[in-house]
Amino acid sequence: MEKMKAFAKVRPEPGGAEYIDFNVPEIGPGEILIEVKAAGICGTDIHLYDWAEIMVREYKPRLPVVMGHEFAGRISVLGSQVNGFQVGDKVTVCPVLYCGQCSYCKNGQQNICNDRPQLGLGVNGGFAQFVAVRAENVYKLDDEISFQIGALSELTSVGIHAIERIQLKPGNTVAVAGCGPLGLLMAILARHSGAGAVFVTGLEQDRERLALAEKIGAIPISVGKSDPKQQILEYTDGMGADVVFESAGTPSGVIQSMDMVRKGGRVSILGQGHAATEIFTANLSYREIELVGTRAYTKKDWENVSDTLVSAAKDLGHIITHRIPLEKAEEGIKLMKARKGMKIVLEP
């Protein structure tokens, strides 16, 4: 059987991942073999690398498994029953293998399907030279989109879904709690969706990330130097932000988001935190704040991703801070763990 190079989780322990020889996938009649050109490292990849308890409990990964679920490439081989694609097409992939049969899927809520294995966790993913994917999860990319920007498709789909869920309106004042890749992505998409002022909060050690936020047109707030609530109140004549996206996934980020939002405003909970958050529920009631849970994306979001990437490509390019060869994937993970990179893209 033909071999390829891949970065895979091979042992159930922190670390336990290696750059190894792996079999080139064989495809079924309804599948597509994709030659991976660029793949992004995500927080979920770090949780898998660390063998985090919450990730193991949620996804139950079976090892060895090729890591990676954010990627773009070209079609190499088509299954015999696949229509609508051609060999050589530039594509990206929705990594969630929803069942398509449950009530959630039939209602267009594939993101909360009860049976949703994911590429790079329960199924071999994109940190490899080739990956096999069922055709219904493959989406064409516009030819003008680079493979590196294409590797941001999954993250961008998360943002598209969050903006749809929160019902962002043109001119809304927006705040984003957290300045990691997801936080900056939300700032970019909010601006491209017609938002007014967009604030992004971060910590003192996030100076470089906050500088990136300013570069994409957002107003950075260093929490150690300024009070986010007070700064936004001053800007909005005492009102507060219309919409807040919580991207940090921390209890303090949730509390900060509730402080920054105005009466009758909406808070999108995007960050998937590992710790419980204690909130004063009367604050929700008295101020009529809406907390909106947001998970992943739906098919509808993926159908819009190519157009979004085209329109926002210049700003999205600022998120990519490193491009490194696949064989150095472990170095990329360590860079992210040390907060020395934003979006790190691997190139097989």
Description:
- With 348 residues, the chain is α/β, with parallel strands linked by helices.
- The protein folds into two domains: 3-156 and 297-347, Quinone Oxidoreductase, Chain A, domain 1 (Alpha-Beta Complex), CATH 3.90.180; 157-293, NAD(P)-binding Rossmann-like Domain (Rossmann fold).
- The chain is built from 13 helices and 16 strands.
- Strands 3, 5, 6, 7, 8, 15 and 16 form a seven-stranded mixed sheet that branches.
- Helix 9 links the parallel strand 12 and strand 13.
- It is globular, with a radius of gyration of 20 Å.
- The model has no long low-confidence stretch (mean pLDDT 94).
| Structural class assignment | alpha/beta
CATH architecture of the largest domain: Alpha-Beta Complex
CATH superfamily of the largest domain: Medium-chain alcohol dehydrogenases, catalytic domain
Major sheet description: 7 strands, mixed
Helix content: 25-40%
**Name of the level-1 CATH class of the largest domain:** Alpha Beta
Helical stretch count? 13
Q: The CATH topology of the largest domain, please? A: Quinone Oxidoreductase, Chain A, domain 1
Number of strands: 16
Provide the β-strand percentage band.
Answer: 25-35%
Q: How many structural domains does the protein architecture include? A: 2
Termini Cα gap: 20 Å
Mean pLDDT across the residues is 94
How would the global form be characterised? globular
SSE order in H/E notation? EEEHHEEEHEEHHEHEHEHEHEHEHHEHE
Low-confidence stretches: none
Radius of gyration, CA atoms, in whole angstroms = 20 Å
